Amino acid sequence: MTKSYDVAIVGGGIVGLAHAWSAVKAGQTVALFERHARATGASIRNFGFITVTGQQRGDFHALAMRTRNIWLEVAEQAGIAIEQRGLYISARYAESEDVLRAFLYTEMGEDCRLLRPADAPFLAKGQRAVLHSPYDIRVESRTAIPKLSGWLAERADLFYGVSVTGVDSGRLETSMGDIRAERIIVCPGDDLSGLFADRIKAHNVSRCQLQMLRLTDPGFRLPGAVMSDLSLIRYLGYADLPEAEALKTRLQTEHAEHLANGVHLIVVQSADGSLVVGDSHHYHDAPEPFTSEAVDQLILDEYRAVLGAPPPVIERWSGAYATSPDQLFLIDRPVPDVRLVVVTCGAGASTAFGIAERTFQSF
Ligand SMILES: Cc1cc2nc3c(=O)[nH]c(=O)nc-3n(C[C@H](O)[C@H](O)[C@H](O)COP(=O)(O)OP(=O)(O)OC[C@H]3O[C@@H](n4cnc5c(N)ncnc54)[C@H](O)[C@@H]3O)c2cc1C
Description:
This protein is α+β, with helices and mostly antiparallel strands. 32% of the residues lie in helices and 28% in strands. The strands form 2 sheets. Strands 3, 4, 5, 6, 11, 12, 13, 14, 15 and 16 form a 10-stranded mixed beta sheet that branches. Strands 1, 2, 7, 8, 9, 10, 17 and 18 form an 8-stranded mixed beta sheet that branches. Bound molecules: flavin-adenine dinucleotide. Flavin-adenine dinucleotide binds at residues 10-16, 33-36, 39, 41-43, 45-49, 51, 163-164, 187-191, 194-195, 210, 212, 279, 319-321, 343, 346-350.
């Protein structure tokens, strides 16, 4: 007899897991299918940086705040450590300081403070000002995702190493046979050519590839995540402010190569003191298998300007996420009782739980 569930989910990345969490919490019977033996995609390759500050003003910012609050509950229940709390954005240019001051006066800047560089002694010389936000948190994704999956496995049926090859109203075709479910949620990440490829294409979705580094313990502890001037023209919560125009003009002249490679700086610290440092952004449907040393050096250049001489690199990797110029995420309805959910910007860890609530409201 075909097994039947209230909810079936395709994809074992953070978006699929967040939907499973939401359904389990609502008392539903849940099956989740992941084609790999474990999650190996964007959700474990990221910084684990659950970013509220700097997300696009309005609805997306609210989604990130909601997701951050749910993450705190998830972390407590699934035994996931919050590795860092808070964000420091350093400004070494006058134009960047103007953006930070303008941000502070918006509703997004509530509870944020502008510090003097002397209040952030971990920063290299040459900074003008530093914005501190208390909201942002960080988990170690490589362990957090398996822990969340382990918590769910005690309350739902999680099938790893099983591909879903077809989805229709009430039914999934999988590599282990057919399954029935009243509601089906497809969370394929950056798989653009699998399930509902036509819908994904219609939403103008492609891929963005990022390079990442892990550096050895620098010998000091960062009190929170660190970002810099280059981030202020990438994250829409700052970049959409009118004050960002002057900064864009300056950075286009003085950091043309960084901008051409989509390089900005995020630095987070792990429990063993090592630092995860990134990143770059290259847009193409077929991610390049070979990472570029020149791009890594651009990332390390920015690290040097903000935190001083970088300690040795101990790991390098790349990752890809789905991206679209048309929207930051989509909840599509390809057939009745089926939803296709894709975060089409690099903020899935920061918004997945809020988006999952929206998906269930949409049925
Ligand atoms: C290097 C990097 C750094 C990032 N940093 C951050 C950050 O710090 N904070 C943040 O918020 N966001 C960050 N992001 C973005 C974030 O990681 C992504 O938005 C998020 O992980 C997307 O989650 P997902 O579940 O949609 O995709 P994925 O993690 O790619 O998971 C999708 C899963 O679905 C499975 N799947 C697909 N089709 C099928 C099928 N037919 N059958 C079975 N399984 C299937 C795939 O195997 C895959 O495991 C970063 C991304 C990258 C690449």
